[in-house]
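worker-03 picked up job from queue 'complexes'. Input manifest follows; four sequence lines, order preserved.
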Amino acid sequence: MSETHETVAHGMQPEDSSELRKLYKGFEEQSLIPLWTQLGDLMPMHPKPKAVPHVWKWADLLPLAEASGELVPVGRGGERRAIGLANPGLAPNAYISPTLWCAIQYLGPRETAPEHRHAQNAFRFVVEGEGVWTVVDGDPVRMSRGDLLLTPGWQFHGHHNDRDAPMAWLDGLDIPFSQQMDVGFFEFGSDRVTDEATPNFSRGERLWAHPGLRPLSGLRNTVSSPLAAFRWEHTDRALTEQLLLEDEGEPATFGYGHAAIRFVNPTTGGDVMPTIRCEFHRLREGAQSTPRQEVGSTVFQVFEGRGGVSINGTTHKLEKGDIFTVPSWVPWALQAETQFDLFRFSDAPIMERLAFMRTHVQAD
Amino acid sequence: MSETHETVAHGMQPEDSSELRKLYKGFEEQSLIPLWTQLGDLMPMHPKPKAVPHVWKWADLLPLAEASGELVPVGRGGERRAIGLANPGLAPNAYISPTLWCAIQYLGPRETAPEHRHAQNAFRFVVEGEGVWTVVDGDPVRMSRGDLLLTPGWQFHGHHNDRDAPMAWLDGLDIPFSQQMDVGFFEFGSDRVTDEATPNFSRGERLWAHPGLRPLSGLRNTVSSPLAAFRWEHTDRALTEQLLLEDEGEPATFGYGHAAIRFVNPTTGGDVMPTIRCEFHRLREGAQSTPRQEVGSTVFQVFEGRGGVSINGTTHKLEKGDIFTVPSWVPWALQAETQFDLFRFSDAPIMERLAFMRTHVQAD
Amino acid sequence: MSETHETVAHGMQPEDSSELRKLYKGFEEQSLIPLWTQLGDLMPMHPKPKAVPHVWKWADLLPLAEASGELVPVGRGGERRAIGLANPGLAPNAYISPTLWCAIQYLGPRETAPEHRHAQNAFRFVVEGEGVWTVVDGDPVRMSRGDLLLTPGWQFHGHHNDRDAPMAWLDGLDIPFSQQMDVGFFEFGSDRVTDEATPNFSRGERLWAHPGLRPLSGLRNTVSSPLAAFRWEHTDRALTEQLLLEDEGEPATFGYGHAAIRFVNPTTGGDVMPTIRCEFHRLREGAQSTPRQEVGSTVFQVFEGRGGVSINGTTHKLEKGDIFTVPSWVPWALQAETQFDLFRFSDAPIMERLAFMRTHVQAD
Amino acid sequence: MSETHETVAHGMQPEDSSELRKLYKGFEEQSLIPLWTQLGDLMPMHPKPKAVPHVWKWADLLPLAEASGELVPVGRGGERRAIGLANPGLAPNAYISPTLWCAIQYLGPRETAPEHRHAQNAFRFVVEGEGVWTVVDGDPVRMSRGDLLLTPGWQFHGHHNDRDAPMAWLDGLDIPFSQQMDVGFFEFGSDRVTDEATPNFSRGERLWAHPGLRPLSGLRNTVSSPLAAFRWEHTDRALTEQLLLEDEGEPATFGYGHAAIRFVNPTTGGDVMPTIRCEFHRLREGAQSTPRQEVGSTVFQVFEGRGGVSINGTTHKLEKGDIFTVPSWVPWALQAETQFDLFRFSDAPIMERLAFMRTHVQAD
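worker-03 finished. Artifact:
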């Protein structure tokens, strides 16, 4: 593809001459750049991401997070002990993709990450551990294994570890989008969390986590989900039921042997936040997902089980905690050695809301 | 109000004359009716419903339903052993309001109500009993105390009683709307239910009854809820939590001492069906709801507890199972003697979608 | 269809007995009506409207309107000299259909119809004449031949005739819907119009009647069109262009030889008012529209030309000014003897917003 | 602001040690970057765009475009003789802002720019000249002074100059967004335009450019406007009427002496394309716009008149054809010496659809 472009582009280039050089100098002086010298890069035949597919092994990440816990304080200013997964194609930025930021955050025993808020949308996913509460606009939200916790844009949030053991989890944000598009605002909040209670269920859950029920005190739709915690118990049951229904011959799964749910805003049925889609996928032992290409970038973390992912023809082995990213329009497919559970997030809401989404599913 | 209108209307009436009589005869011959003789009725100052407020006592209804069980067969043709609550102001129609139909349906031991489908939207609410399964588009849905079960427009449905005891429940439909507006279609289905299984949970629940989760196999929004059963366990917990949150000083209830939820379509967060809103209200012992007037008509059934309703200034005592209707724009308020639980349905989606909704809440 | 129902219904009727009579007496005493005695009427196999197809001849209507001008005053109380077209199937109501009201309104030289407002949505269509201004929320709107003028719900409006000649036009409202559904509110306004200016273009047109342009002072969407006048000049040009494009082989018409436009709310692209759809249809000489059935009722007025309409198999000749109505689900098709122009309005927005719409187009 | 951040960030930096260096080396080996070393850049207190405000003078641009016409061929490969306005803060990219591309395109006498299509959304605005037709999905669209012409994503388009004089115009696209977000697709089309006719009005205009009217053949909403040409005649009249209405004391303008329209998709009333907002602003002689800050970036081109713009406190003189850009959250205000007409485009639909939009209007 790029060859074609270069060839064609070369084909049309004007002949060198002193007049041309003068013209190009004029362009430079006037902050102008002609299209004909760079069309192929600006407008490729299909997405040609600088971001590359990449796999981070949990076995490598966790020790570094633990070492950070020893060496790096957490507090006002740095705000978070978070280690960003930096896509090698996007260096020197700590972007896992052009839109998404993904980090391991680590909080030592009894530590507190102070409160702040920002326009950026954020979530946490807990691959293991417990004991931390994130306080979102004053509402303490327990973080436990398998849970998805939201801190949508411009809601104050801080975290505190109520236990004597450290805890690490996955952070996802739309920082690269917001940084490149110049949409970020930030405000410091309380140095400690504003509510140190450690309830089992947040107030948001007590109001909203009832299937098909909506409080009359909450009839106004919100751009992000008012439910900030999606518990593993529910996710696991939903996936389990899909596979059981498939066993019974019912059309419940996303593909054969492939159960999947999307986390949604109960006020709209749409994505939990305006820029980030969150899903959970489970493949039966031995199952494979249908190879697909999608506009936009995505990140997966293995929650449980063993398997692999084939990205653009290359297969990577995966174990619990491993994280990988697939750039825009790169084909991918999952393979399960055991029952294989993966958390997924992506920038699909951006692509869909701006009408750029395309999906290509490989025919059988 | 009507006086004013009549006076004014009289004031503008043309003087009687032979020419006028000839004109009116001409109108009659040409199927014409002048506005000036009937403006006050056609366009009142505010809604002046023919429907009247009315209370039906469960203690009266149930024995008649039981007697029907003895005397009236159920089967193809009559289709249902359903006894409509006929608003005295709308006689001779069996309409509880201009839009809504409400009936007690009764199914004897081991009886089956055959399958059919219709454009009309329908639901069942179970004030007591169990043992019947309603089969909705082939999916058997258990009916138990406190549950709301949907059969949205054009979905096949039949009921069968799996037990040796009879069961009675509340039916709600938009028959009066559909009959007056000429929108009804009907089709017979199987003489027996198409799936005689009696599972605890319908397939719809297994796919959809997970808070904030949506199956990837169900990403297309539907006009009615794909979740057909809303279980009492969830309703009760949601209401309980609202009152507990109120105790903690949080803004969770609809009014002081007044918890309330709306049953919603999880694909949109909106009403469960395009024409019918379903809600559940709970008042603390001693609490009162704020008096309000609303465009459109509504029906309540007491689920548990004792209290009263004041409608247009008249107070009615209420006990378990009692049903009452409030016509459009008539002021109403609930009073709770004990903890007071009420199921509610209304035509509010019609009023809102057509931009006719107005609400007036009495200031304290 | 009805035979089947009656037969089947008979088949399931309980045997007469003293107990049954006692039961039925109990129903009556308790304001109850059983479903099994009236299912066929309540839930027909398809819409069985009481309204009937009917044609009103302009040659009959206009003289009666003129006689009314002589005999009936216009003023506060009666409000309007409007003569309703009463569907013979809906007697004694002045309803042209279960949802729609249609009248000839007549205003003598220099007369004024006082200002008022109501929840009901209204429009005027001018089949001939000029000289009247309708003042909508203080904005004087010229009424000329071929124009559609809106007075959406709860906007004050009055009319005054600025000329020495009388004028008659078509009024359309959702009075039957609002009366049966109890949604009406009404308020008297000024006894004279609040602005007696007679500009060529209303302020609404000056702000909004620019194709594809929206004022930055009007960015909030409104349930009804902020543009209150749709001029014949534009309607005619749009229809002319569709037929020219068809001549050029482009896909522009609704059916072969059948141009049609819908009047829309420029803030949404949807219907001009929440309950009423307005359209204009033009058939080439000799063309026919494809026979179709639609849920909901509709009214047409011939604007120009000669032709006919076949309703449920019966053909009616039509000339300028003639008005006809087609009830729900009754098949209809237009035939053009000359170029044939018709204004149309219907309750389709009600049917679509409540998900009751069905359309059946007869295959060729 | 940045000082604060740096200070605080310094405050929390871990002390240097061999362990820390080892940790940082580990990060590097594992493609990880810690948040605490770069928080201030990633998440600023408010947008801190790399893009800078910049003014390009038409008097500088046009001669360079003309020289390009002499020296650079147009044809397959380079595709367009377009000269991009490169924001000095975003070098070496030819981006006028992080989301928008803006260029002068130049087509010599009788030249053709070949057909292609791309996922990127594009428009042309004509500050002067005529004689070129752009052919959009086979529909020839005349380009004349003051017109806005759309080529929404994935529609084939090419241009040809039907005259003996060259023509230059402004191109706007979402290339920077699509390039950074990896959403672009591209396809070559015909080497010549597929329809060489030069009609006054495109077929799209003939179908759609009728105020408040929608063809029944076009009832499906589209993500971009089906109307591809917005004529100066309409724009000018809309602005003129707003100022006249203001003279009459009516609330028609955007601010005092400041008329403005938005170009919209007639199927929705929303923006013409999913990523680009287009507007036209007119200030009376001597008028000023209210200073405002907005999330997202914008570009203006002076169409007629003289005046200035104050950007972040610096005032720039402006004449016909001059182009300037305002980055995200930078305050700006217009001042008119004469009647002052400006075309504007921005990425506001991106910000609004993703819920990042904020606006701050300076109080008087």
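worker-03 released lock.
The helical segments of chain D are 2-12, 18-29, 39-42, 58-71, 175-181, 203-208, 232-247, 348-353.
The first strand of chain D starts at residue 32 and ends at 34.
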